TrEMBL record:
Residues annotated as domain Nitrite/sulphite reductase 4Fe-4S: 156-288
Descriptive protein name: Nitrite reductase (NAD(P)H)
Name of the top EC class for this enzyme: oxidoreductase
Keyword DNA repair (UniProt): no
Superkingdom of source: Bacteria
Species assigned in the record: Thermincola potens (strain JR)
PROSITE patterns in UniProt: NIR_SIR (PS00365)
InterPro entries reported for this sequence: CHP03980_redox-disulphide, DUF1858, NasD-like, NiRdtase/SiRdtase_haem-b_fer, Nit/Sulf_reduc_fer-like_dom_sf, NO2/SO3_Rdtase_4Fe4S_dom, NO2/SO3_Rdtase_4Fe4S_sf, NO2/SO3_Rdtase_FeS/sirohaem_BS
Domain Nitrite/Sulfite reductase ferredoxin-like as annotated: residue spans: 83-145
Domain DUF1858 positions: 3-55
Amino acid sequence: MQITRNMTVGEVLKLNPKTADVFRAMGMHCLGCPSATAETVAGAARTHGIDETELLTRLNSAGFGEASDEAKALAQPKGAVLQRDKKTYAIVPHIPGGITNPATLRKIADVAEKYGAEVIKVTSAQRLAIVGLKHEDVEKAWHDLGMDPGHAVGLCVRSVKICPATTFCKRGQQDAVGLGLELDKKYHGMELPGKFKMAVSGCQNSCSEPAVRDIGIMGTSKGYVVMVGGNAGIKPRLGDRIADQLEPDQVLELVDKIINWYKGNARHNERLGELIDRVGLDTFKQAVLGPEAATTVAPNRGI
């Protein structure tokens, strides 16, 4: 099979592991990085200042086989993120909704202490990252934890951020915990064209920041509001409010339609908001809400 410029680095490595030596020889030393392997060959060449034609020629000329031991050594351990020092790793056990118990906290602390972790970091995604593990300790740490990795990087659905809502908070107007955990269970880690974030808040205080998530769900006294296309980052965008006064089952049905439409229409590495801006909000709304969706004069963003 011919390797093309639009194939991802991960697809190329899977097709022929020996191409890892080509990438390595041309100065691409982050073969195990989820973000790097999700790049296209063209994008990787551009990022590393490599001639794309030369890279493709060498990739297609590589004999089929296994990667060398030197190239294999560059691969990051499964479920780990290389740190700034380029020597140690962080692992992020998945804690759905940031809700856990004392036994799990003790286990995380024990593993961090056993393998000499530098620090335990509370992440913005409501998880605990064990930072500063040696390469040879990552697999052992995961074994001792007995927990699934959180999908903190890569082109997939990241953790679903939720607030305490009616489960714990006196200000909650709708259940964010139950709905958020159901979304997390169904979608967390699902591979998509780009990274995808969701949040559920139980009231309009929006403590989980739904207006800057690809799908943001906000509780009100009359039901749930759904916003789409929000993101923070270098080009922040507030989500477009497309539905309100929804019941939980209606929210779940709409989320499923949105994700399926995004999966079928987005370009590689294109966030939902970018896709909506490209095709138009009316087109998006008609696709997920039906032809009767009201024509939008201007984006109705945020709350």
